[in-house]
Amino acid sequence: MARLYQSLVGDDADNPVGEDAADNRGEEEAAVERASIFLTRVLFLLFGDDAGLWENDLFYRFIEGRTQPDGSDLGTQISALFDYLNTPDSERRRMSDNVPELIQKFPYVNGGLFAERTRVEYFDAEMREALLDACRFRWTRISTAIFGSMFQLVKSREARRAAGEHYTTEADILRTIGPLFLDELRSEADRLIASKSTSRKAFAEFLDSLTEMRFVDPACGSGNFLQVAYAKLREIETDVLAEMNRREGGETQLLGTLGTRLSIEQFYGFEINWWPSRIAEVAMFLTEFQADRYLEKQLGDAPVRLPIKTTARIVHADALALDWRKEVPETSGKTFIFGNPPFIGQFTKTKEQTAAMKAVWGKDYDGYLDFVTAWFKKAADFFKTGADRSHDREGEFAFVSTNSISQGQAVPALFGPLFRDGWRIKFAYRTFPWSSDAPGKAAVHCVITGYTRDETVRQRLFEYDWSTRETNELKVKTGINAYLLDAANVLITKRSEPLSPELAPARFGYKPADHGYLIVEPENYQEVVADPIAAKYVRPYRMGKELVRGLDRWCLWLEDADPKDIMSSSILRSRVESNHKWRSEQSPSGDAFKLKDTPHLMRPNPGAPKTNYVGIPRVVSETRSFYTATHYSPDVIAADSVFTVEDPDGFQFAIVSSSMFIAWQKAVGGRMKSDLRFSNSIVWNNLPLPAVEPKLRQQIIEAGMGVLAARETIAERAGGTRSLADMYNPFAMDKGLLDAHKKLDRLVDKAFGAPKLCTSETQRLEILFSKSIYG
Fold first, then answer.
1. How far is residue 38's CA from residue 51's CA, in Å, rounded to a whole number?
2. What is the mean pLDDT of residues 288-314?
3. What class of enzyme is it (predicted)?
4. Which residues pair with 335 in a beta bridge?
C-alpha cells in the first residue's frame, strides 16, 4: 500500500498525519486527496476478495487477467470498475451486453463509497505488481482496527521509515470499552447461555436490549474504537443466536425470525480530520462483513450486505463545536461514550483550543485543565437535560487521557464539576504506557477512567506492574477517589499557607533573571575566584539538578556589595554591565526589564530563608522511595527549581524525608512526564499533619538527624562525596540509610495517627485521606 501511495504522489511524499492532518479536503494537495480516495476504495476491494462479498479473489483475477503487464491500462480499467461498482442493478441490465463477464460478477456496492468520480490514475509495471502483492495478502486475517493507522503510516514518509507499531492495539481499546459495557454484556450473555432454564423469550429480550443501545466515539479518528466495540458486540450476539439455534435443534432459521439485530447505524463517530472520517466509514463496513463471517460459521447463514443499506454515523466536524445531542438521537436504552481524545497539555494549547475549552467548560473553566478534559465535560452534559435528573439520558462514558487529570491542581478542576453533577468513577486504570495511534508520537503515560451515575455499580480499579508489564485488578474497599486511589473521596485544592500548624511555609528559591551573568559555572569558577574582590561574593548556588546529583555551581551574591568593589573588579563590572544591557533589551512588561536598574541583584525574594533550611527539588524521579531533600545553611543560595522551608531544628527535613510524605506527594502532587513534581500550594500546604506533642517532635528531629548522619557515613566511605541520586538508587540503597529511614517512618507514622509502623503505601493513604484528619 505504501508503494502504491508513493507512486501516486511521489517518493518524497510526507504528509501531516494524526492531530496535524488536514481538517478539510481543500487543505490537502490534489494528488494526496486523489491517492487517499483511491487507496480507500482499493482496500475495500482487497478485503472483499477475502471476505466473501463476491467470488474469492475476483479483484485479483480482474487485475491479473484484465490489465496489461506493463500497467498502461490499469488506471483506466480500475476507474471503469469503480463506475460499475456504483451502478445499481436496474441500470446494469441495460448495459450488460457491453460489460465483460468478469466485471459483471462484481455486485452493486452503494453506501457512497464509489459515488464520486475521480481522475484516472496512471500506472506502470512496478505499480501493477505492487497492487497484485496487496491482493495476495489475506486481509481478513487482521483486525480492521489497524486500517486507519496503516493509512497514516502510508501517508507519512517519516512514519514509514520509523520502526515499531503506531496503532492502538485491540487490547488497549478493550481496557476502555471492557469495563464500561462489554464485560457486563458478555457476562450476562454467558449466564444466559450457561443456564438450562433460560427461555427463548429471555434470549430475545437480551438481544432486543442490545438494539436499544447507542455507542459514540467523539474523537473517533479512523474508527478503531467503534470497530472493536461493534465486532465484540456482534460476537456476543452471535453466540446467543447460536445457542438459541442449538436448543431448537439447529433447524430454526433464526436469521429470518429473530435475526442479527445489531446494526452499524447504532455507532456514531465525530472526527475533525477529513480522511480519517472517511476511513472510519469504510472500516465499519468491513468490520460488519468480518462479523458476518463469524455468524455464518456459527449458523450457516449470514445477511446479504450488498448493496450497502446501513452505515455508521460518522460526522466530519469539530466535536467541541458540535451539538452531540442533535447528532445522537434519544433511545430507550443506554448510550455509551468512549474514546481517546487528543492529548494536549495546559501549556501547549493554541488560542483557538483555549477558546474552545472555555466555551465547553463555561463558568467551571480552569486554566490547569488539559485539552482532553473538554470531552469529559461534553460527555457529562450530553446526558443532562436540566436540574431534574428524571429526564436525563441514560448512559455512561469513559476516556483514555494523560495521567495529569488525576494529579495536582487539575484534579478538583475536573472532578469537582463531575461529582457535583452526580457522576462517580465506575472504573479506572492507573498510570500505564499507551502507544499513540499517531505515527511518530512517543508513548505517553495514560490513565483510563469510566464514569457512571449508578451508585450500586461495583467499582473496579486496575494497576499496571511496571516490572512485569502486566495489569492487575485490585480489590476496592473504600471506593475510587479522584486521585484513582482506594481511599476517601477528598479533593485537594490550592492553599496559600500550610494546613498544619507544625509546618513552615515552603517558598520558591531565587530566579536570577540574568541571562547567566550572575551565575558562575564550574568551567568559570577558577577564573572568578582568582579575582580576590570577586571571590568575596561567590556563594554556592543550587538548582534541583545540583541538589540531587551532588554537582557544584555558584553565583555572585551582591546583595550587600560595596559599589566600589563592583567597579574595582573587572569580572564583577563586566558581568553587571552585561546584565544591565541584557535586561534593558527585554520586553518592558517582563520582570527582567523591570530589574534593569539593579543589575547586580537577582529578582527579589522576600521569602528567602534567613536560617538553616530544607532544600526541596521541584522534580525528582518517580522511582525514589523517599523524596530527596537536603539541609542547607543560609549561605547556600537556592534557585527557583528548589523550594525552601526554614528549618532551624530539622523537623521540616524529617517530615519531607518520610514515607508518609512521599505517599502524599505521589497521590496528590503533579507530574512532569512521570516524575514527581513538588508543589507548595497543593502538596505541602495540604499535608494533614496533626499537632505533634513535644516529646514525639524531638524524637522525629533526632531521627531526621540520623538520616543525615547515615548519608555522611556513606559519603565518607566513598571518599568524601556521594550524590543523593546514588544514595537513593531504589535498587541499591545502603542498609544503614534504610534503617535510619525506617526509624524515622515509625515516628512520623505515629505523628499522623498510625498505631504502629505502616507496612504499605495504601495504609498511609488511608490515614492521609481519612475524614478524621480533615474533619
1. 20
2. 84
3. transferase
4. 214, 395
User: How many CA atoms are closer than 13 Å to the CA of 374, on its beta-carbon side?
Assistant: 28
Q: How far apart are CA 297 and CA 288, in angstroms?
A: 14
DSSP state of 275: H
pLDDT band at 775 (very low <50, low <70, confident <90, very high): very low
Output phi, psi for 337, to 5 deg.
Answer: -115, 135
DSSP track, 307-337? SB----EEEES-GGGS-HHHHS---SS-EEE
pLDDT band at 772 (very low <50, low <70, confident <90, very high): very low
Q: Which residue has the higher pLDDT, 230 or 431?
A: 230
| Selection from 397, 383, 394 nearest residue 448 by Cα | 397
Distance CA 394, CA 378 (A): 15
pTM: 0.82
For residue 148, give the nearest of 227, 82, 217, 215 by alpha carbon.
Answer: 227
Task: Identify whether 179 is preceded by a cis peptide bond (ω within 30 of 0).
Answer: no
Edge-to-edge strands, sheet with 619-620: 619-620, 675-677, 670-672
Cβ pair 36, 275 in contact under 8 A = yes
Q: pLDDT tier at 11 (50, 70, 90 boundaries)?
A: low
Cell numbers found for residue 120: 484516472
Question: What is the C-alpha to C-alpha distance for residues 500 and 280, in angstroms, rounded to an integer?
Answer: 54
Q: Rounded to 5 degrees, what are φ and ψ at 613? A: -145, 165
Could you tell me which residue, 437 or 37, shows the higher pLDDT? 37
Rounded-to-integer distance, Cα 705 and Cα 558, Å? 32
In this prediction, residue 299 has a pLDDT band, given cuts at 50, 70 and 90, of confident
Q: How far apart are CA 492 and CA 495, in angstroms?
A: 9
- 3-class secondary structure per residue, 490-535: CCCCCCCCCCCCCCCCEEECECCCCCCCCEECHHHHHHHHCCHHHH
Spatial contact of 442 and 674, defined as CB atoms under 8 Å apart: no
Mean pLDDT of the chain: 87
Q: Which residue has the higher pLDDT, 298 or 716?
A: 716
Cβ atoms 267, 224 nearer than 8 A: no
- Burial classification of residue 497, based on how many CB atoms lie within 10 Å of its CB (0-12 exposed, 13-18 middle, 19 or more buried): exposed
In the sheet with 613-617, reading across from the earlier edge strand, the strands are 506-508, 642-646, 613-617, 630-632
The confidence score (pLDDT) of residue 298 equals 85
Query: Pick from 144, 119, 354, 334: which is nearest to 229 by CA?
Result: 144
Mean pLDDT within 589-613: 93
Burial class of residue 570, CB neighbours in 10 A (0-12, 13-18, 19+): exposed
**Across-strand partners of 734?**
none
- CA 505/CA 671 separation, integer angstroms: 21
Would you kindly state where each structural domain of the chain is located, as residue ranges? 2-141, 144-153+162-340, 352-368+392-491, 495-510+610-775, 511-604
* Residue 293 identity: R
Asked whether the beta carbons of 233 and 264 are under 8 A apart, the reply is no
Which residues on neighbouring strands pair with residue 644, listed in sequence order?
507, 615
Closest by CA to 336, choosing from 164, 424, 506, 451, is: 451
348 pLDDT band, cuts 50/70/90, is low
Q: What pLDDT is stored for residue 387 in this prediction?
A: 59
- Counting other chains too, the contacts that 323-332 makes at CB distance below 8 Å and 24 or more residues apart are 324/216, 324/218, 324/270, 324/378, 324/379, 324/382, 325/382, 327/268, 327/270, 328/214, 328/216, 328/268, 328/382, 329/214, 330/393, 331/212, 331/213, 331/214, 332/212
- The DSSP H or E segment spanning 555 is strand 554-556
> What are the strands of the beta sheet with 214-217, ordered from one edge?
313-316, 267-271, 214-217, 335-339, 395-402, 444-452, 424-434, 460-465, 470-474
Q: Give residue 618's pLDDT.
A: 95
Range name among 237-241, 259-263, 354-358, 489-493 with the lowest pLDDT average: 259-263
Q: Are 47 and 139 in contact (CB under 8 A)?
A: yes
| Residues 380 and 397: beta-carbon distance below 8 Å | yes
**Calpha distance 391→31 (Å, rounded):** 50
